[in-house]
Design goal:
The protein has about 160 residues and is α+β, with helices and mostly antiparallel strands. The protein has 2 domains: about 80 residues, Homing Intron 3 (I-Ppo) Encoded Endonuclease, Chain A; about 45 residues, Arc Repressor Mutant, subunit A, CATH 1.10.10. It is elongated, with a radius of gyration of 23 Å.
Length: about 160
């Protein structure tokens, strides 16, 4: 059956499946274009997230706050049996339960310019004379980051010694 709304292109599950490689765990691995690892389908110049399209075809329209969640953890899978509608919170809870959630906080963030010892030093020298601007220049970070460190809105897991 082919459906079409403003949200989704007119395409059938059979059409989609015919362009997939079926894996041993029954994922429909999309062989076409991808965006950030997710299957992408272009219709009339507009690109759609194909996992959302197949979820729609199998499970109906999503509520405004719902995403298509994968039970197989395979971004390029478009098997409707591996997809369901759910909230972003449910998606995060699934990721945590399956040990797929990674925190890029602190030094785990590849773009971090400082480390916990520098955070402690910034907190220790604040209030002893140097301004936020001077501290930022000293450590090569932004004024905003210094402010966020001092108020413990950034690097919140670093304990003062």
């Amino acid at each position: 059956m082919v459906y079409s709304t403003n949200l989704f292109p007119p395409v059938s599950l059979e059409e989609i499946k015919s362009q997939c490689l079926i894996t041993p765990n029954f994922c429909w691995h999309w062989q076409g274009a991808k965006r950030k690892g997710y299957a992408a389908y272009t219709y009339n110049g507009r690109t759609f997230s194909l996992h959302r399209v197949t979820c729609f075809l199998a499970h109906g329209e999503p509520k405004p706050d719902e995403n298509a969640l994968h039970s197989c953890d395979n971004r390029s899978c478009v098997n409707p049996d591996h997809l369901r509608w759910g909230t972003q919170l449910e998606n995060i809870q699934d990721a945590i339960a399956r040990n797929r959630w990674t925190s890029n906080r602190g030094t785990k963030n590849g773009r971090a310019k400082i480390n916990p010892d520098v955070v402690r030093a910034i907190r220790a020298i604040w209030g002893t004379g140097p301004t936020i601007i001077q501290i930022a220049e000293l450590y090569g970070i932004s004024n905003q980051m210094v402010s966020r460190i001092i108020t413990k809105k950034a690097w919140v897991d670093v304990e003062d010694r």
